[in-house]
Design a protein that fits this description.
By secondary structure, the protein is α+β, with helices and mostly antiparallel strands. The chain contains three helices and three strands; from the N terminus they run H-E-E-H-E-H. Belongs to the bacterial ribosomal protein bL35 family.
């Protein structure tokens, strides 16, 4: 049987913590800052946990 390969694109976007939780950067923080309030920009900075509904699918993509 061939080896299971992890999805490299997902691996670049999601990090697994020591306890096994999935952490990602929030979307919407790349451009058009003039049209966004600075409160929204601050809220989007930093990392967040992957939604529980998506966690199983993302772990499968990572080969875990």
């Amino acid at each position: 049987m061939p080896k299971m390969k992890s999805h490299t694109g997902t691996g670049k976007r999601v990090k697994v913590t020591g306890s096994g939780k999935l952490v990602k950067q929030q979307a919407g923080l790349r451009h058009n800052f003039e049209g966004k309030p600075s409160t929204r920009t601050r809220r989007l900075s930093g990392t967040v946990l992957v939604a529980k509904a998506d966690a199983k699918r993302v772990k499968k993509l990572l080969g875990r």
